[in-house]
Amino acid sequence: MRSLVLFLVLTSIASPIFSQDEVLRKMFFAAQTESAKRDFYNYCVNLQNKTNTQIAYSGVAAAMYAEVVSNVSDKLQFFNSGKSIIEKSIARDSYNPELRFLRFSVQEKAPRMLGYSGNLEEDADLIYYALTNGYANKNDNFWSTVIKFIVASGVSENTKSKFKKL
């Protein structure tokens, strides 16, 4: 909790430097531990006047939070809620490569028994299109991390090969 407070203080001081979306991106990639997942979830829950992209990050945070709670019923509730939020965000802006990456990341990490992995190749294709047609900058830190994530994922070798060439 102390790390969240410190993070929030630092980001509020640096608000002209970091947009809320940049903070969300950093917290998303940093959410590798239970504590960081909790902080990410709490940060997302407390955002006011969310954009569609920020709503999608809130969905990802809820899905990730499912890993933190101990009760199986709560795990399913958080995961399904997050999944629903992500899908609604994509329905509002289906060509947004960042939203597609967020869904990709959740589907890639979700246990296969949950049946939420059907859009991996489709999302990777849209992200690739965005990166190769100037809709996303492959040299941007966020997008270079996305490329590495996709290359390390369980997508087809053909898809991985395309991303390795970027």
Describe the structure.
The protein is an all-alpha fold and 166 residues long. It folds into 2 domains: 1-93, no CATH class; 94-166, no CATH class. The chain has 9 helices and no strands. It has helices at residues 2-13, 20-30, 34-45, 52-65, 72-92, 97-109, 120-132, 141-151, 157-164. Helix 4 (52-65) packs parallel to helix 6. The radius of gyration is 16 Å and the shape is globular.
Strands, helices and their partners?
Blueprint: H1 2-13, H2 20-30, H3 34-45, H4 52-65, H5 72-92, H6 97-109, H7 120-132, H8 141-151, H9 157-164
Question: Which labels suit this protein?
Answer:
single chain; 166 residues; mainly alpha; 2 domains; 69% helix; 0% strand
Beta percentage is: under 5%
Give me the number of helical elements.
Answer: 9
The description of the largest β-sheet is: none
Radius of gyration: 16 Å
Number of domains: 2
The ordered string of helix (H) and strand (E) elements is: HHHHHHHHH
Instruction: Report the mean per-residue pLDDT as an integer.
Output: 91
Give helix % range. Answer: 55-70%
Query: What is the distance, rounded to the nearest whole angstrom, between the alpha carbons of the first and last residues?
Result: 39 Å
Taken from the alpha-carbon principal axes, the silhouette is: globular
Strand tally? 0
Structural class: mainly alpha
**Low-confidence spans: pLDDT under 50, at least 5 residues?**
4-17
Give the gist of this structure.
By secondary structure, the protein is an all-alpha fold.
